[in-house]
Amino acid sequence: MQLNRDQLERAYRQMKTIREFEERLHIEIGLGEIPGFTHLYAGQEACAVGVCEALTNEDYIVSTHRGHGHCIAKGCDVPGMMKEIYGKAGGLCDGKGGSMHIADLNKGMLGANGIVGGGPPLAVGAAIAARNAGNGRVAVAFGGDGSCNQGTVFEAMNMAVVLKAPVIFVFENNGYSEHTGVSYAVGSGDISARSAAFGMPAIKADGSDFFSVYEATCEAVERARNGGGPSSLEFAICRYYGHAEGEPQRYRGKGEVARLRETMDCLTHFRRKVGEAQLLSPERLDEIDVEVLELIESSVQGARTAPLPPAEALFTNVYNAY
To answer: Distance between CA 184 and CA 284 in Å, rounded?
Structure first.
């Protein structure tokens, strides 16, 4: 599908927002401003944005412990996200979810998930509900390479094929399941082949190239909307930081991260491609950069000065009554 100028600008803005959001969190966490565990998404921006750009506001996504990028790509409010991560009132979940449990049902973002492989069953459920309602919606389950080894994921993929659920399984293969290399952890050595064995189309693409991600996702979304059932997408990508903030990354080679920042930067790739095609000017992209930095700064200041949730909030939204 051909993207117009507004869509290209939005895609770049979303990727840049994710990058600067995560780079700033890296600083704030180091200052002791952020409570709890945080898993940064920097380096994987094209995956989230390329997928979500192919979705509508009504479609569903289910995220992972590394979920900030997915939230922003699906349209979640950035200042509200920052307050949530700071544990402050006014956060998307009133400061009670934190980094690993951000959700915004109004945006179709069904939640980040601290359980590896916990998202696919939820996405299949949402997809079955959409199919039964006949509303044409699809659901996307994001997961890392480590999630492909979980039994919940196998069961979800099998059920999706059997029931022809309109769901897409996205595996962001950043090379490490926490601290273990994918070549060791994945016995077959091929995540996509595992998915295909369940009877669904399985596509591989370059996760650092927004356009490759977007095209692969559009194909899978069209298939799902038209009753063709589930698909699997595997995107080769890298993460710039550790599994979680504060870990020393001793499992990575010397200079590995610096090399990846040079060769697998989705922002650099995007700017080069749209520049060569004369679709967006460097000056316009620079303007977006400035606007994004202003948004991140105001979001941080708003989160720092926001009040903590009141004590009585401990007793609200604990259980859902049906």
So the answer is: 44
Q: How many CB atoms lie within 10 A of CB 146?
A: 21
Spell out the domains of the chain, with CATH numbers in brackets.
5-303 (3.40.50.970)
3-state secondary structure the chain: CCCCHHHHHHHHHHHHHHHHHHHHHHHHHHCCCCCCCCCCCCCCHHHHHHHHCCCCCCCEEECCCCCHHHHHHCCCCHHHHHHHHHCCCCCCCCCCCCHHHCCEHHHCECCCCCCCCCHHHHHHHHHHHHHHHCCCCCEEEEEEHHHHHCHHHHHHHHHHHHHCCCEEEEEEECCEECCEEHHHHCCCCCHHHHHHHCCCCEEEEECCCHHHHHHHHHHHHHHHHCCCCCEEEEEECCCCCCCCCCCCCCCCCCCHHHHHHHHCCHHHHHHHHHHHCCCCCHHHHHHHHHHHHHHHHHHHHHHHHCCCCCHHHHHCCCCCCC
Handedness of CA 126, 169, 258, 279 (dihedral sign): negative
Tell me if the pTM is above 0.85: yes
Contact of 72 with 40, CB cutoff 8 Å: no
Burial 73-82 (b: 16+ CB within 10 A, else e): bbbbbbbbbb
Number of Cβ atoms within 10 Å of the Cβ of 197: 14
How does pLDDT run across 189-201, given as a tens digit for each residue? 799 999 999 999 9
Q: Which residues contact 110 (CB under 8 A, 6 or more apart)?
A: 60, 61, 62, 63, 103, 122, 123, 126
> How many CA atoms does the CB half-sphere of 24 hold within 13 Å?
22
What are the pLDDT digits (tens) for 104-142?
999 999 999 999 999 999 999 999 999 999 999 999 999
Q: What is the Cα–Cα distance from 7 to 21, expressed in whole angstroms? A: 21
